[in-house]
Every structure is written in C-alpha cells, then in structure tokens.
Amino acid sequence: MAEVRVVDLRSDTVTRPTDGMRAAMAAAEVGDDVYAEDPTVNALQERVATMFGHEAALFTPTGSMANQIGLQLLVPRGEELLCDADAHVVTYEIGAAAALGGISTRTWPAVAAEIDVEAVAAMVRPAGYHAVPTRAIAVEQTHNRGGGAVLPLSTLEGLRRVADAAGLFLHCDGARIWHAHIADGVPLQTYGRLFDTVSVCLSKGLGAPIGSLVMGSAERIEHARLLRKRLGGGMRQVGVLAAAGDYALTHHLARLADDHARARRLAEALAPCGIVDAARVRTNVVPLDLTKCAIDAPTLGALARERGVLVSVLGPRVGRLLTHLDVDDAGIERAIEVLTGLLT
Ligand SMILES: *Cc1c(COP(=O)(O)O)cnc(C)c1O
Predict the structure, then answer these.
(1) Does residue 142 have a cis peptide bond before it, meaning omega lies within 30 degrees of 0?
(2) 49-99: per-residue pLDDT in tens?
(3) Mutational test site, ligand 1, from 10, 15, 60, 64, max ligand atoms within 8 Å of CB
(4) Which pLDDT value is given to residue 3?
(5) Which residues of the chain have pLDDT under 50?
(6) Which residues line ligand 1 (CB under 6 A)?
(7) Which end of the chain has fewer CB atoms < 10 Å from its terminal CB, N or C?
(8) Structure pTM?
C-alpha cells in the first residue's frame, strides 16, 4: 500500500525545497557576502529592489531581522513606532524593537486587518519637549493574525498621506505581500512606492528554505548592512540560499493563486460546520473559530493529527489552516474529510 502522506496545514513555512530549487542552489555562484561579493546574493537583491521600485535591497536570514533593520533605519532610539496590536513586529519578534532597537511602540486595537486611518492620524504625538516623538507607522500586508487579510490600497494610500502630513516614515512588513499582489492584482511597485522600507519573506508561501529582504533607498540600505552585521546577520557564501529565493520568485509566485483557491475550497467545505467565515478568506490563511463547537481547538488538533492532518492550535478555541506548495488538491480533500468527520 502506498504511504499516506501527512497533510501539514500548520503553516506555509513547512515547505521543503523542490528538486528544481535544490539544483539551482547547487549550481549557484558564490562569494563572501560580508564583502558584498556574492554574485547570486547581489543579483537577488537587485531583482527584488526592482520588483518593488526601490533603489536597493539587503538579504537577511529571517523576516524578523528584515523588519527590525527596517524599523531601526526609520526610528531613532527612544522614539516611537505606531502599529496595530496584532502586528508581527510587536507580537512575534520577542520584543526586539524595544530590546535591540530601543524603539518605543504604541498600538491601535487590531480589528482583523482593518485600519481606521483617521484614528491612526489622531495617535501621532505633537512635536515638543513633553512627549515621545512619533517617528514611523508600520503595517502588515497580508496580515498574519488578521487571517491573511489584504489591506485595501486606498487604506495604505491614506496612511501615506497621514505620514507625509506629520513628517513620519512608513514601514511595510510584507512577509506575505506576494499573496496580496496575487489576490488583488496590485502591482508590487505600487505597494513598494508607498513605503520607506519594506520587508519580504521568501520562506513562506514562496517555498525557499530561508531568506528575507529589506529594501529602501540606497543610502538606507548601505546603513542596513551595518545594522545587519550588528545583529549577527553578516553571512558568507550565501548565494546557495539566495539561489533558492531567486528560483522561488521565478517559479512559485504566480502559483500562489492555487493556494488561494485551495484555501477557499477548505473554507467553503468547513463553513457548514460553523467554524469558518468563508467570506473573509482572501489568501492562503483559513482562521478557525471553535467557540460554538462541541470540541475545543487542542482536541481537534490532536484528533486530526492521529488521522494525518496537522492544524495550528492558537488558543483554546482558535485554530488555523494555511495552504502552501506542499499540499495539493488530494491533500485538501483529505483534510476536509478528516475535519468535517471530527466536527459533525
Ligand atoms: C513570518 C513572518 C515574519 C518573519 O518571520 P521570521 O520567522 O523571522 O522569518 C514577519 N512578518 C510576518 C507577518 C510573518 O508572518
């Protein structure tokens, strides 16, 4: 009997490099990247900067490092960043903005991924000798804890106007900005031009084993090299990793539409169980709300695991499914069969 593969829907970070990606990694030309002499890294940085209409980009091992470098470029120590309470930069980066950047953060309440632009404008502190100076605003596209929601372009443009009026900078945590581009058809350059710094991940939906970039002006990215080294992120012959990212951009970007379609299929099949609001599923994230269920999220997670389906358990009544490169239509159907079996 054929081996039954586990359907791992916990995250889009669990993908493994494909044979084609491994071949590209093996063939990569390399050099010492601390000397900026790795041709494959340099080419990837140029490619990504151009995709977003920025002057320069810098390769980093993780999205957290790319974000923190972006924030440190914009916000001096002791000054303030505004973002939403569910933002990755204040939730999942282990206090790095404060611990490493000396950056004070103030958050607006997260309502899925929606942003009240006027309310954000009202948070900006006036200049003077009394208050922490507000220096930058950060947004997340797509929004991880917001269920993979896509912020409308008009909202981002509104924030740009707020930033310009108040003399603030704008950072985008674009770990999954690829998904927003595919879902809404907004050109990456349109997004890129709205922000002073942007971070992107190659190791999420795009399927590279590692790799992120931070981009901005040539001057900022020159400074970013120094900040990266200070964070311990100076790397050597990492063209082998950049080659994986380059391959991912060439082969795995357009196919994100398949992941979005599979997430919709999951959402529509699970909606009758009362745990998914299918209308809110726009990209590859399917949030599960088990408040009205007979079983809680840890129990669902454990029972599904026994049946070869892995789901993310985020709280007693909160779960999550993510579609990605390593789950095909057959895997989705198996997950639907297992989950609906447990929920009805
Ligand atoms: C995954 C992710 C990051 C970066 O995470 P790393 O694990 O540090 O690569 C940043 N922002 C968002 C929204 C993410 O989902």
Answers:
(1) yes
(2) 999 999 999 999 999 999 999 999 999 999 999 999 999 999 999 999 999
(3) 64
(4) 59
(5) 1
(6) 62-64, 67, 88, 140, 144, 173, 175, 201, 204, 212
(7) N
(8) 0.97
Domain with CATH 3.90.1150.10 in the chain: 7-14+255-343
Q: What is the dihedral of CA 169, 225, 50, 136, to 10 degrees?
A: -10
pLDDT score at 111: 82
What's the pLDDT score for residue 4? 66
Q: Which residues pair with 214 in a beta bridge?
A: 58, 199
Please classify residue 40 by burial: count the beta carbons closer than 10 Å to its beta carbon, then call 0-12 exposed, 13-18 middle and 19+ buried: buried
To test the pocket of ligand 1, the residue of 60, 83, 91, 144 to mutate (highest count of ligand atoms within 8 Å of its CB) is 144
The C-alpha atoms of residue 124 and residue 165 are separated, in whole angstroms, by 11
Distances (CA, A) of 267 to 78, 219, 260: 44, 45, 10
Best residue among 91, 139, 173, 314 to mutate for probing ligand 1's pocket (most ligand atoms within 8 Å of CB) is 173
> Could you confirm whether domain 31-251 is CATH 1.20.1440.230?
no
pLDDT the model gives residue 127: 82
pLDDT at 248: 98
pLDDT of residue 2: 53
Superfamily of domain 7-14+255-343: Aspartate Aminotransferase, domain 1 (3.90.1150.10)
Rounded to the nearest angstrom, the distance between the alpha carbon of 277 and the centre of ligand 1 is 24
